[in-house]
Amino acid sequence: MKSIYLATVLLVLVSATFAAPNPRYNPTTREKRRRGSSSWSGRRSLQPRDSCPVPEDVAVVAPKANPFVSLSQDEIDSVAMWLHDPAQGLNLTNTSSATISLSDNYIWHVDVLKPNKSDVLSYLDASGVVPRYARVTLIEGGREVPIVGEYSVGPLPISNSTRKEALDNIYNGPNGAKLLWSAGPVDSLRRAAIDSLMNATLAPIADLTNDLLEMAFYGSSDSRSTMIYFMQSPASTDGEKSVFWSPFRRNGMEPWDQPSDLYIQFDITGTDASQWRSMKVVYNLEVYDSVQAFYSAWKAGNVTKTSPPATNIEFLYKNKTGSTRELEDRMAPTVLSLDGNRFKVDKEEQYIEYLGWTFYMRFDYDVGVQFYDIRFRGERIMYELSLQDAIAQYAGNNPFQAGTAYMDRFYGIGAASVRLIPGYDCPYHAAYLNGSYATTNQESYSQINSICIFETDIGTPITRHMNPVWSQATKGSKLIVRMIATVGNYDYLWDYGFYVDGTISVDAHASGYIQANYYRPDDEGRWGPRVAETIAGTLHTHVMNFKADFDLVDEKNSLVKTEIVVENVTQPWFDESFEMMRYNISDVETEDDGLMDLPANGQTMFTVVNKDHTNKWGQPRGYRILPGLSNVVLASKSSPFFRKSGQFAKQPIAVSRQHDSEPASSATLNQNVPDAPLVEFWKFFNGESLVQEDLVAWVNLGMHHYTRSEDIPNTLMSEAHSNIFFAPQNWGDTELTKDLANSVMMYAEGADNEIVIETNGVEPPSCLNLGPEDSLLGVFTVSE
Ligand SMILES: [Cu+2]
C-alpha cells in the first residue's frame, strides 16, 4: 500500500521564548505536543522519516438496502425477452437483425424506472416494499403513425402480473409518453441513413468543398473524408417534421473548433429515407435554394471563397508548453485527511455517513448521480436532490448556432460520466464509487470510479471570534461528492457539498472545448470575440436545473418570502421622518406564485419551513434557498428552440407541490420537441396550495458564457462556475457547530491570567510536520 511520507519534525515548543503569562495546555493535548523533537529543520524535509497512513474507507452498513439499484443484466434480458414475446403483440425486430430497417419496431433503451416517492418513503420509514419496474423506450417505426414511446414494464421480476403501460402518468405534454418518430433519438440505424444522405449530398460536390473549404466528405467511414458533419439540436419542433441545419467541420481532433463557413439544411422526416433530402445552403452568409443552385453558382464563378478552417490546430492542444514558472516544479497544495477519513461509505448500497449527515445515492443514464433521504442529525432535510437537465442555448450569425439549444439529458449525462483522475479531478485519497446504469445497447454497465467522495477544508474557519478575554475558532469542513461528465465538447463538474453546519451546496463548473463560430470580421464580435485564426467564441448560456425535494422534518412544508422593503418612518425619538428598511414576510400561498425571479440586490430571502415544528424560539424550522454565484437563466424566454421544452430554465427558482406524477422538470426525449415536449414544466404550476404541503424547489445554476481567448484550448473552471446553497434558517435553536471538537478556545484563567488552550483532544497527527508559525502558543494573550 502506498503511503505518503512526511517529515516527523513536530511542533516545536518554544515556550521559553514567550513571556508570561505562562501558557499551559490541558493534559490531553500537552502530552501529545511534548513528544516533539527539539529543533525545526526547515520548511521542506527532503528526508522523510515517517509517514501518514492512507486513510482507509471506514465501513458502515446502510440501515436499509438501497431502493434505487440499476437493472442487472438478467433483468434487462428478461424484460427484452418479454417484450419480444409475440404474446405482447409489439412486433419487435431484434436490433442485431441484419435486415432491420427504420420502419421496424425495436427497443432503444431498457432502464430502471425511478420508484415513486410514496413507495420509497413507506419503505424507508416503515416496512413497505418498493415495486420494481423497467422504463422502456421503444422506437416504433412500424406503426401507422411512427412514434418513440416510453413505457413501464413490471412489476419485476417478470411474472404473470407483469404489464406494459405507457408512462403517461409522468408526462404532461400533448402526446403523453411519446413523440412522433422524426423527433426521436439518432440511434446507429438512423445515423447510418443520415450518413448516406450526407454522402449523397456532399460526395458529388467534392470539387466544390475541396475548393472552398479545402476538405470533402464521402461518408463517415470513408478514409478520404476530411470533413465531418453535425446535426442541429433541436432537429424538429413537434416531430411532424425533422428539418435541421448541419455545419461542416474539419475531421480530426475537437472538430467543434474547426468549423467552416458552410451550412446545409436537411429534411429527414419520416421512416422512408429515400424521401430525405437536402434543402437550403448558406455559405458566406449567401443563401442558396438548393445544393444544386449553390454548385451552379460556384461553377459560374459567382461564389466568393472565405478562409477554410485553419489546418494548423496547435491551438487546440493542451500539452504543457513554455518554461515552468518558478517553484511550480513543486506539487500543488492538496487536501489530505491525515488523521483518517471522517466519512463512511457503504459502497454496495451507495450510502454515506459524514459527521451527522446520512444519505443514499442513485445513478442513471440520464443524469448520473442523485441523492435521496438526506438527513442531518437524524432529521430528514430533503427526500431528493438531483440534476434534471443541463442545457445550453447558442447564438450566432449562422443558421446552425442560431438554432442550437442542447438538452444534454437527451445524450445521457450519466452515460457521459467519466472515470475520475486521482490527484487531479479529485484529491489524493478520495473514495470512489462506480456509476451503474443500463446502456442503449441493453447492457448493464458500470462506469468505474465516476463518483469521488472526499472531505475538504472550506477554506475558512466556520466560526471565529476574539475578544479581550478569549479567542475562538472552529474548523470549517464539508464532504464533497463529485461527478464529471464529458458530453461531447464540454466537461461538466458537479459538486454536492455537505457542510458541518448543516448547509448543503451544489456547485457546477464547466471546462472542455467551446463550440466555436466560424470567424467573420463583419460580425464585429456581436456573438463573441475572435479567439483563433478562423474561429470566434459563441455567445451561449448554460442552465442546469436541480430538483430539491425538501422534507423538513416531514413532508408538510411551506414557502416563505422575506422581502426587504424600504419605507419612510416617523418615530418619536427622531425629529424627522427617515427611510429605513424592514422585512415584509409572506407565504407563497399557491403554485400560481411558484415561478419566482430573484429581486435585485438580493432583497428577498426564500425559505422552506415547517410551520408545525418550531425551534426553541418559536420560529418555524427552515432552510433557506440561497442563490450563490451566477444563478443565471435563459436570456430568451420565447425562443422557438426552447419554447415549451426548456421552461424549467426560465426562472431561477420555482416551487411546486410534489407529485409522483411530476418526478422531473425535463425529459430525456424533450430535446427535439420544443413545441410538444413530454414534460411541460409550467403545467406543474396549476394553483395548488403551497402551505404545509410536500414542496419541491426547482433551482437553476448557470453561466452566460462570455467566451474569450482564454477559452482556448479549454474553458476555465475558475470562472465557469455557478453554485447555490441550502442553509439552515432557524432550523436549530442555535448554530449547529457548537459540538465540533475541531475547535480551539483560548482564554485566561486565574489571578495570573494563565492562558488555557483548549483543543478538545484533537491534535494534528504526529506525521504532520508543523513549523513554529503553527504553534498556538502566544497567539492569545491578555494585557496585564
Ligand atoms: Cu460554455
UniProtKB/TrEMBL annotation:
Location of the active site: D408 (proton acceptor), Y490 (schiff-base intermediate with substrate)
This protein's record includes keyword Transferase: no
Domain Copper amine oxidase catalytic: 334-734
Cofactor dependency: Cu cation
GO cellular component, one term: plasma membrane
UniProt entry tagged with the keyword Signal: yes
Transmembrane segments: none
Domain annotation DUF1965: ranges: 259-308
Region of interest (Disordered), residue spans: 23-53
Residues bearing PTM 2',4',5'-topaquinone: Y490
One protein family per Pfam: DUF1965
UniProt feature coiled coil, ranges: none
GO molecular function: copper ion binding; primary methylamine oxidase activity; quinone binding
Family in the record: Belongs to the copper/topaquinone oxidase family.
Protein name: Amine oxidase
Organism: Paraphaeosphaeria sporulosa
